[in-house]
Amino acid sequence: MSALSKDTGLVFIHADESCLGNQFSDRATPGGAAGLIESFDQERGWTRRDYFLSARDTTNNRMALRSAIEGLAALKTAERVVFYSDSSYLSEGMKDWIHAWAARGWRRKGGPIENLELWLRLVAVAARYAVEWRWVRGHAGDPKNEYVNYLAVTAAKKQLTSSGLVESGFSDWIEEQHERERLLDFLDLPPDRPFRADRRPPKPPRHL
Q: Which CATH number fits domain 6-179: 3.30.460.80, 2.40.240.20, 3.30.420.10, 3.40.190.10?
């Protein structure tokens, strides 16, 4: 399935990234990015899909940006999106930094923007939707953050790419965690926090 349909209403994306071997400066650092896309219907319950991708030599920041680009691009007809990530680079960037950069002609105070080509790709795809960027603390027991971390690390280690959305393995994964007596307080219910979209991203420049 390539996209979630419009009648799903509010869509949630939980995304994470991984980069292996960051402590080494003399070798390639393979990375992965992944996400869980879900929507909730009172009658049908959850609809869930996964995605993941990899790169042979990359950085955590680049993978965080790619996790968002890939996830949002999959929502061909969605309207409202809550995007969860433990990357403050991604969440702060989309909530705040991009607006200051655009006002300066897509430059930082200190000079060129790192990973500008990925930021511009993300700005373009995010402009299609009303998005709320929610930061979550990584490795803090949030089940869906833990799940996408598992997907991202696996993609990095095995250099896997889903080539679009695939059936989600979250239900099986959380059942396995329960069998190991982990995450036992998890309730599979939609969040009750109201949706509040962040500012729409500025238009990307045509000349860059």
A: 3.30.420.10
| Burial group, residue 172, by CB count within 10 angstroms (0-12, 13-18, 19+) | exposed
Three-point CA angle 49, 89, 22, nearest 5°: 90
The rounded distance, in Å, linking the Cα atoms of 114 and 107 is 9
- Burial label, 94 (beta-carbon count in 10 A; 0-12, 13-18, 19+): buried
Q: What is the bridge-based pairing of β-strands 80-85 and 45-55?
A: unpaired
pTM, two decimals, is: 0.93
Domain ranges of the chain: 6-179
Condensed to tens digits (0 to 9), the pLDDT of residues 159-202 reads 999 999 999 999 999 999 999 999 999 999 999 999 999 999 99
CA distance 44 to 108: 46
